[in-house]
From TrEMBL:
<dbReference type="InterPro" id="IPR029063">
    <property type="entry name" value="SAM-dependent_MTases_sf"/>
</dbReference>
<dbReference type="GO" id="GO:0044027">
    <property type="term" value="P:negative regulation of gene expression via chromosomal CpG island methylation"/>
</dbReference>
<comment type="similarity">
    <text>Belongs to the class I-like SAM-binding methyltransferase superfamily. C5-methyltransferase family.</text>
</comment>
<dbReference type="InterPro" id="IPR001525">
    <property type="entry name" value="C5_MeTfrase"/>
</dbReference>
<dbReference type="GO" id="GO:0003677">
    <property type="term" value="F:DNA binding"/>
</dbReference>
<feature type="active site">
    <location>
        <position position="34"/>
    </location>
</feature>
<keyword id="KW-0489">Methyltransferase</keyword>
<keyword id="KW-0808">Transferase</keyword>
<dbReference type="Pfam" id="PF00145">
    <property type="entry name" value="DNA_methylase"/>
</dbReference>
<dbReference type="GO" id="GO:0032259">
    <property type="term" value="P:methylation"/>
</dbReference>
<dbReference type="GO" id="GO:0005634">
    <property type="term" value="C:nucleus"/>
</dbReference>
<protein>
    <recommendedName>
        <fullName>DNA (cytosine-5-)-methyltransferase</fullName>
        <ecNumber>2.1.1.37</ecNumber>
    </recommendedName>
</protein>
<dbReference type="InterPro" id="IPR018117">
    <property type="entry name" value="C5_DNA_meth_AS"/>
</dbReference>
<dbReference type="InterPro" id="IPR050390">
    <property type="entry name" value="C5-Methyltransferase"/>
</dbReference>
<keyword id="KW-0949">S-adenosyl-L-methionine</keyword>
<dbReference type="GO" id="GO:0003886">
    <property type="term" value="F:DNA (cytosine-5-)-methyltransferase activity"/>
</dbReference>
């Protein structure tokens, strides 16, 4: 239903939708495309990021939130949303949600802190209507290899345990934990798909194989 609404929204830019088009939505979750702020984009608009067509979907996301007024909003994006142009788009997202009368909580979370063999820091934005309880972010479960990627002014948004608290986190996962069980591939290998030729060596590898084998225990 929501997919159909979004399609209709995009088709209606020349004629505004009315209250008759509204649907009841508990939560909207999304991650507007990051091409306009990615560090790999050499032509980023630093002076006015919202004038870049690649960043327009952030505005569309907020317009849909404004129109539907869901109970909760969860938005995810790359760290560049708070790094590029002094965090222009991140500040825009926060201020827009506040303007729409949402409680807001921002969180910087690394995938490696939750059991994945990579760092991959991301920015999350929670929004909740005034009559709802603003959710907390889940606390890290794993140790990880730290990287300095968060701007100083947003460091307080890092999701983590209290400083100085004694913890027994799961050990960090490295690349070896993910791919050390893969079969060897020669220079002239002609197979697109290969079977494993040994047993999984780590718990992560066992988990990944469950997915491949249809969750057979």
């Amino acid at each position: 239903m929501l997919e159909g609404f979004c399609y209709k929204w995009l088709q209606s830019k020349n004629s505004a939708l009315t209250w008759k088009d509204k649907i009841d939505v508990d939560a909207i979750c999304g991650g507007p495309p990051c091409q306009g702020i990615s560090g790999f984009n050499r032509f980023r608009n630093k002076d006015n990021p919202l004038q870049d067509e690649k960043n327009k979907q952030l505005q569309v996301f907020m317009e849909i939130v404004e129109f539907l007024k869901p109970k909760f909003v969860l938005m995810e994006n790359v760290v560049d949303i708070v790094k590029f142009a002094e965090g222009y788009l991140g500040r825009y997202a926060l201020s827009k949600l506040i303007h729409l009368n949402y409680q807001v909580r921002m969180g910087m979370m690394a995938a490696g802190a939750y059991g994945l063999p990579q760092f991959r820091m991301r920015a999350f934005f929670w929004g909740a209507r005034p009559n709802q309880k603003l959710p907390q972010y889940p606390l890290p479960t794993h140790d990880l290899v730290l990287r300095d990627v968060i701007p100083v002014e947003f460091e307080m948004s890092t999701v983590g345990w209290e400083e100085g608290k004694k913890l027994e986190l799961e050990k960090k996962l490295l690349l070896e934990d993910a791919i050390s069980d893969l079969p060897s591939v020669g220079n002239y290998e002609d197979k697109d798909v290969m079977d494993y030729d040994n047993d999984p060596k780590t718990e992560f590898q066992r988990f990944i194989r469950l997915i491949r084998e249809g969750w057979k225990l």
